[in-house]
Design brief:
EC 4.1.2.25; binds ligand LV4SOB2L; 4-stranded antiparallel sheet; folate biosynthesis; 4 strands; 4 helices; GTP Cyclohydrolase I, domain 2; single chain
């Protein structure tokens, strides 16, 4: 018997250029001074229900997620971007149940003087 899975098209709510300040890094100067981090975040979810209802509760609120990310980053004191990015992705998936996948990019523009910026990109899926 063939079974057709019910798939909804996946859409993306995004946050681009979210500017924060954090204590982050492995060097002494980074443990003593906050430095800028800039986040781009894609959150994949179907938006069909929200498009019908016109209700913010049927989608993910990019303003709410932006505020939550700023709060996490500003209270964090990790050494690695890896640790901070994992924490943020897990927070989004745990607290915003409509989100099926998060793609997160963080830029750390003051980390390596010879570059425009360096950073990390990670992708995390909801585990069923
Ligand atoms: N993969 C990573 N490499 C590096 C990190 C990091 O968080 N992840 N951090 C540093 C230093 O803190 C750097 O940003 C200071 O220049 C080096 N490499």
């Amino acid at each position: 018997m063939s079974h057709t899975p019910s798939t909804q098209p996946m859409d993306t709510v995004f946050i681009e250029g979210l500017k924060t300040q954090a204590i982050i890094g492995i060097y002494d100067w980074e443990r003593e001074n906050r430095q800028p981090l800039i986040f781009d975040i894609d959150m994949d979810l179907p938006i069909a229900q929200a498009a019908k209802s016109d209700d913010i509760n049927d989608t993910v609120d990019y303003k709410q997620v932006s505020d939550e990310v700023i709060a996490i980053v500003e209270q964090s004191r990790h050494e690695l971007l890896e640790t901070l990015c994992e924490e943020i992705c897990q927070h989004i998936l745990k607290n915003h149940l409509a989100v099926q996948m998060v793609r997160l990019k963080v830029s750390k523009p003051q980390a390596v003087a010879e570059t425009d910026t360096v950073g990390l990109k990670i992708t995390r899926h909801r585990v069923l």
